Amino acid sequence: MLFDAATRSETTIRSEVLNYLGSAYEYTLGTWRFRWDEDPDTRHHFTEMVSWEQMISESYWNRAPSVVPLLGADHDEAVRGSAVYLLSRIKESGPELVPTLQHMYDEQVGEPLRIDIIEGVANLTFTQRPARASDLQWLHEKLNDSSPAIRLGTALSLMAREGQEKEAGHEDDGRSPLKQIALDARAEGEHALRQTAWLANKSTDWALERTADQNAESGGTGV
């Protein structure tokens, strides 16, 4: 029902519905799915719950194609950003979504949508094994963007996945630490950041303290 509402043009709160669906997957459904995948020795403790959660998760995967059209330029940027957030949280969206998001970034779009795209690409990049070097490079290029908002959003997205970056073979290249980049850009970039879908109902301070472990536990990455 919620997916149907989110994809109908007459629904006036589509972005809010998409954000809700994305948050539900990230904080609940994703958590159970990753525990099931990664900790098989404890499955017997919550098999019934996991079975229920997996059934719901499968409905997400089955309905994801209906959300893809909302990425299109004929929709307003709030809806597009929320669609990016939801789709990039669904692990099975796969690598084919990353080029789509990167092409969106190159359109004449606002900074909040671009920050949502960066977070989406970061999340999808680190759900893939191995991570694509070209996607890592694309993300790191945004740390040098002229826009403080883009630098802030990129630093926050990469900070949450620093440990995974090392696993993927991307070593520190001598640049300033990611947190320092974020702090330096915060004053000028925070206004745009606060308009993003991925940070809805959260704070910049929360994003600054987000770690890879917290991100994985919340279902934010598919590691």
Describe the protein's architecture and organization.
The chain has one domain: Leucine-rich Repeat Variant (Alpha Horseshoe). It is mainly α and 223 residues long. The two termini are 30 Å apart. The protein contains twelve helices and no strands. It is globular, with a radius of gyration of 17 Å.
Structural class: mainly alpha
Beta content: under 5%
CATH class type: Mainly Alpha
Classify the helix fraction into a percent range: 55-70%
Averaging pLDDT over every residue, what do you get?
83
Radius of gyration: 17 Å
According to CATH, the fold-level topology is: Leucine-rich Repeat Variant
The main β sheet shows up as: none
Reconstruct the topology from this structure:
Elements lengths: L1 H5 L7 H25 L8 H21 L9 H13 L7 H9 L5 H15 L7 H9 L6 H12 L2 H6 L10 H16 L10 H6 L2 H6 L6
Which key terms come to mind for this protein?
single chain, 223 residues, mainly alpha, Leucine-rich Repeat Variant, 12 helices, globular, disordered C terminus
Brief write-up:
The chain is mainly alpha-helical and 223 residues long. Helix content is 64%, strand content 0%. The protein has one domain (2-217): Leucine-rich Repeat Variant, CATH 1.25.10.
